[in-house]
């Protein structure tokens, strides 16, 4: 017998609305944010210690830490019709 999830025409339950984060994901992000806030002063001390011997390494560590606070943007490619080039026309022409 077919599962009710596989019956033709059955739409399923309401589920989460698109864009709503998972409850566990939200809790994990909040816990990480609390941890980061609570250790900000320690991180500054650690970065200062690293910078004493190697400023370049301190900058690398800082950049790596930033990726957890400000995520990298995904690259997007814009294309015209049928994946062709985009035509730009100025309003006064």
Structural commentary:
- This protein has 93 residues and is mostly helical.
- 48% of the residues lie in helices and 0% in strands.
- It has three helices and no strands.
- It has helices at residues 23-38, 40-53, 55-69.
- The model has no long low-confidence stretch (mean pLDDT 82).
Give the tags:
93 residues, 48% helix, flat, mainly alpha
Helix and strand run: HHH
Give the distance, in angstroms, between the N- and C-terminal Cα atoms. Answer: 65 Å
Total strand segments:
0
Mind telling me the C-alpha Rg? 24 Å
Low-pLDDT stretches are: none
**Basic shape:** flat
Q: Bin the strand percentage.
A: under 5%
Q: What portion of residues is helical?
A: 40-55%
**Category by helix and strand content:** mainly alpha
* Major beta sheet summary: none
Mean pLDDT: 82
Q: Helical stretch count?
A: 3
Q: Assembly type of the shown chains?
A: single chain
């Amino acid at each position: 017998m077919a599962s009710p999830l596989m019956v033709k025409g059955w739409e399923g339950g309401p589920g989460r609305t698109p864009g709503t984060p998972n409850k566990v994901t939200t809790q994990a992000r909040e816990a990480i944010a609390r941890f980061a806030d609570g250790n900000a002063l320690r991180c500054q001390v650690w970065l200062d210690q690293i910078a004493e011997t190697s400023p370049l390494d301190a900058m690398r560590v800082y950049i790596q830490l930033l990726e957890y606070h400000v995520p990298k943007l995904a690259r997007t490619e814009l294309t015209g019709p049928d994946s062709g080039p985009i035509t730009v026309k100025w309003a006064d022409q």
